[in-house]
Amino acid sequence: MLQDIKRIGKQRMPLMRAAVLSAALCAAWYSGRGYAEEGQKADTSGDTSSALTAGETSVSALPANLERVAAPLVAPPVNRKKPALVRAELEAKPVTGLLAEGIGYNYWTYNGTVPGPMIRVRQGDTVELTLKNSLESPVSHSIDSHGVLGPGGGGKVTQTPPGAKSVFQFKAMRPGVFIYHCATPMIPYHLAHGMYGLMLVEPPGGWQKVDREFYVMQGDIYLKGDPAQSGLHEAAVGKMVAETPDFVVFNGSAGSLAKNRVLKAKTGEKVRIFFGNAGPNLVSSFHVIGEIFDKVHPEGATETLSNVQSTLVPAGGATMVEFKTEVPGTYILVDHSLGRLQKGAVGFLDVEGAPNPQVFQSISAGSLASDGH
Ligand SMILES: [Cu+2]
């Protein structure tokens, strides 16, 4: 991790220049709104002499042995009978990680993971949230939680320069599964760097117990230069504004839920996926190939729908889906806007167990090939 941060330090100046343009563009969107101006001020202390050009190539050598950034574990159920004071601490910090094979990316993160830590509290809890911004950060950061009632969801009072910290307190008023994200201009630029996570607010009795819970978030990523070129890439503002991502990924990178990082369950288990879509731009049609969601909390709502094939998750939205695994095999998590498969939006759930021919069996296979799903 220390090495990662040192590497990021070398990238600091180009990132600062990018942030300057980000702030300038964002100011137009938010003119007259105080907190955006605060964020802009915090970000404009760097070099203003150079501007980012859409399509500008900026690919440097791929650091040796670069790995994908980790995703955090699911926070355990609250299981508490009364509201309490809960303290949560996040640190905004840059991390260089593998975005896809041969492609490196300078992430901005909460606590070094993408998504950031899952914050899980009970309805009625008072939450004291501390945001530290690492000295290694090239820019200011902040946090806006969609589960917070108050200006900017906290974004107004948490604009935090590198090396500083901010603290605010809120009451978790409504139950649900909520996105949190950085709200420092240019906000989508921070989102496209990986600054997001989920905050769960359980109802007083908690949610129904299941056997497995998983934490998955989708995000779109935009690279300067040729995205197929091996090397360490920088984020592209032009493509982001044009909404033409090079990568659409789950948990920060293509391949983050594959090979030794697949999700695992056994037949007969009840599975719950907390699925958030950070965007910043794309809407997700979340689907698990070979499964039907027994229960969906559409857009994270309290009310549920039954027997759903795909569920729409807006940018800046989240859902909970539940299903019981019936048949062993590999199940594939996708955004069913399937062109995005080619951009990395795919993950795998391996289900182990005895065959269940009453529910599914092959009578005569078409071929021995393993393609198709
Ligand atoms: Cu940020």
Structure description:
The structure is a single chain. The chain is mainly β. It has two domains: 2-49 and 58-202, Cupredoxins -  blue copper proteins (Immunoglobulin-like); 212-221 and 243-352, Sandwich (Immunoglobulin-like), CATH 2.60.40. Helix content is 13%, strand content 35%. The protein has five helices and 21 strands. A six-stranded mixed β-sheet has the order 1-11-3-2-5-7. A six-stranded mixed β-sheet has the order 12-10-14-19-16-17, with no helix packed on it. The protein has a five-stranded mixed β-sheet with strand order 13-21-20-15-18, with no helix packed on it. Helix 2 (12-29) runs antiparallel to helix 3. The chain is globular and about 65 Å long. The two termini are 37 Å apart. Residues 1-55 have low confidence and may be disordered.
Keywords:
binds copper (II) ion, globular, 5 helices, disordered N terminus, mainly beta, Immunoglobulin-like
Write the SSE topology.
Elements: H1 2-10, H2 12-29, H3 34-43, E1 59-60, E2 85-100, E3 103-110, E4 119-122, E5 126-133, E6 144-145, E7 165-171, E8 176-181, H4 187-191, E9 196-202, E10 212-221, E11 231-233, H5 237-242, E12 247-250, E13 263-266, E14 270-279, E15 284-289, E16 293-297, E17 305-308, E18 310-313, E19 317-324, E20 329-335, E21 346-352
Parallel strand pairs: 2-5, 3-11, 4-9, 10-14, 13-21
Antiparallel strand pairs: 1-11, 2-3, 5-7, 6-8, 8-9, 10-12, 14-19, 15-18, 15-20, 16-17, 16-19, 20-21
Bound molecules: copper (II) ion.
